[in-house]
Amino acid sequence: MTKKHVGLYPGTFDPVTKGHMDIITRGCRVVDKLVIAVARNDRKGPLFNTEERVNMVLHDTAPLRDKGFEIEVLPFDNLLVNFAREVGAGVILRGLRAVSDFEYEFQMTGMNARLDAEIETVFLMASEKQQFISSRFVKEIGYLGGDISSFVSPETKLKLEEKFEIMRKSKD
């Protein structure tokens, strides 16, 4: 019997974008099981709480699970390599959009390798159509009234619009 290859795709997913979904979809093709690790990371001041972000990722990945891909979505708030060990992941998947992402990811990979040399990091280049999408830009564009429908799923767009409305009302 062969060992199942488990991959871990960590992120804040605030919100989950079509760029994230591109990496998730492609990641599902290179591992037997993909664990999507939603970082609590309150230091970043996320727009959505952890439970909301987990639920958005669960919703957006449902079509992939319906196709038979094994996906689990879990929150985490400890060292990434420790969480990878907890879920049995031998691979950490990371998406790269541009050269600017590479330096940070390169440093992170080196640190993770020092903490656990048995866990590999695999980089997936963002698809051409998704290279410029970031959660930060999506939130900025959406808050300022721009059309974000090409960057996020319809349900995520609705949740963002609800948050922006609350933010605008509290500002008045």
Please describe the topology of this protein.
Blueprint: E1 6-11, H1 18-28, E2 33-39, H2 50-66, E3 70-76, H3 80-87, E4 91-96, H4 99-115, E5 120-125, H5 135-143, H6 154-171
Parallel strand pairs: 1-2, 1-4, 2-3, 4-5
What would your notes on this structure say?
47% of the residues lie in helices and 19% in strands. The chain has 172 residues and is α/β, with parallel strands linked by helices. The chain has a five-stranded parallel sheet, sandwiched between helices. Helix 1 links the parallel strand 1 (6-11) and strand 2 (33-39).
Measured distance between first and last alpha carbons: 62 Å
Structural class: alpha/beta
Based on DSSP secondary structure assignment, what is the total number of beta strands? 5
Pick out the low-confidence regions. Answer: none
Helix segment tally: 6
String of helices and strands: EHEHEHEHEHH
Neighbour order of strands in the largest sheet = 3-2-1-4-5
Main sheet specs: 5 strands, parallel
Q: Average pLDDT, to the nearest integer?
A: 91
Broad shape: globular
Fraction of residues in H or I helices = 40-55%
Integer-rounded radius of gyration: 16 Å
What proportion of the residues form beta strands (DSSP E)? 15-25%
